[in-house]
Amino acid sequence: MDDQTLKEAFSDFGEVIEARVIMDRMSGKSRGFGFIGFSTDEAAIQAMSSTNGKELHGRNIIVSVANDRPPAFDAPDLNK
């Protein structure tokens, strides 16, 4: 799966403004997840409800809203 294939797979639900498959830096292979952005919330909701738990290219997929990353841990400054 690459970015373009992911975009095409979800384009039936609305305008896809971003599709990105996350790749492993060391191996260059897909890490098994990605992100899709739609131009409208309605398109995103329709895509989630229609594809979650379904098969895409031979794999069952989970489609949900992405959560923001928690802030990075700030180590205390030991030089004070």
Question: What's the short version?
Answer:
Helices cover 24% and strands 26% of the residues. With 80 residues, it is an alpha+beta fold.
Characteristic terms for this protein:
80 residues, alpha+beta, Alpha-Beta Plaits, two-stranded antiparallel sheet, 2 helices, 4 strands, 26% strand
What is the element layout, followed by pairings?
Elements: H1 3-10, E1 16-23, E2 30-38, H2 41-51, E3 55-56, E4 59-60
Antiparallel strand pairs: 1-2, 3-4
Number of domains: 1
Cα end-to-end separation = 49 Å
Q: Overall 3D geometry?
A: extended
Uncertain spans: none
Q: What percentage of residues falls in helices of 4 or more residues?
A: 10-25%
Percentage of residues in DSSP E strands: 25-35%
Keywords: RNA-binding
Domain RRM: 1-68
Pfam family, one: RRM_1
Protein name: Putative RNA binding protein
Walk me through the structure.
The protein is an alpha+beta fold. It has a single domain, classed as RRM (RNA recognition motif) domain (Alpha-Beta Plaits). 24% of the residues lie in helices and 26% in strands. It contains 2 helices and 4 strands, in the order αββαββ. Strands 1-2 form a two-stranded antiparallel sheet. A hairpin with a 2-residue loop joins strand 3 (55-56) and strand 4. The longest helix has 11 residues, at 41-51. It is extended. It starts with a helix and ends in a 20-residue tail after the last strand. Keywords: RNA-binding. Residues 1-68 form the RRM domain. GO terms for molecular function: mRNA binding. This is Putative RNA binding protein.
